[in-house]
User: Which sequence fits this backbone?
């Protein structure tokens, strides 16, 4: 248990569906992150929120839409995804620097 | 080309063996993070270090900032150590650069 909780753990969705991934941390951290891990590839940073403001958008397609309503919660809204978007999506949080971030268990997403 | 290189990519060891995983990086970083990812996908932080050596149980991490190299050692390896080990360093600000990971399998 790292203190960062992601739901759901597994998600199967069709290409026309709309779904959301949720991340929650009660560690008092001020930065939250979404990462994507595709098969046999390193983790890729998608978004960074610092003090609830988006400070990094790593050229992510608009079909991924993040939302950070407060410092403890982070969402990733998904719509009209493609099969190649199937991956493990990991949330993390940190106090300041990303080094030392705490990671969630991830959501295994399958787009059919 | 990934700016953080790990070796080996795959490693199979017998229980009890001493294991070393290496991480070299071309980006200028001030600290490095070793992570462990289990088959279910969850990632656990092992070490964050900016100099010298850190030890936690059977795990030892070393770093040489000048040589841009870090190593993770596992003593008396056990099958439960089987996982993917990832090193990561900050590129700038809140951006981490990750290695591709080393898949470790320890056989009993």
Assistant:
């Amino acid at each position: 248990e790292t203190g960062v909780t992601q739901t759901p753990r597994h998600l199967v969705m069709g290409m026309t569906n709309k779904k959301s991934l949720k991340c929650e941390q009660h560690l008092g951290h001020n930065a939250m992150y979404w990462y994507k891990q595709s098969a046999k590839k390193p983790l890729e940073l998608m978004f960074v929120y610092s003090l609830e403001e988006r400070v990094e958008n790593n050229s992510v397609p608009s079909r991924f839409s993040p939302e950070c309503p407060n410092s403890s919660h982070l969402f990733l809204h998904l719509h009209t995804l493609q099969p190649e978007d199937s991956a493990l999506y990991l949330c993390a949080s940190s106090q300041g620097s990303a080094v030392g971030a705490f990671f969630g268990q991830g959501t295994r997403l399958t787009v059919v | 080309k990934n700016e953080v290189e790990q070796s080996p990519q795959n490693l199979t060891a017998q229980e009890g063996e001493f294991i070393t995983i290496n991480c070299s990086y071309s980006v200028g970083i001030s600290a490095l993070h070793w992570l462990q990812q289990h088959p279910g996908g969850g990632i656990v932080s092992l070490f964050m270090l900016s100099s010298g050596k850190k030890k936690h149980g059977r795990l030892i991490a070393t770093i040489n900032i000048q040589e841009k190299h870090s190593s993770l050692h596992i003593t008396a390896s056990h099958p439960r150590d089987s996982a993917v080990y990832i090193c990561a360093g900050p590129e700038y600000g809140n951006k981490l650069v990750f290695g591709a990971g080393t898949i470790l399998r320890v056989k009993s």
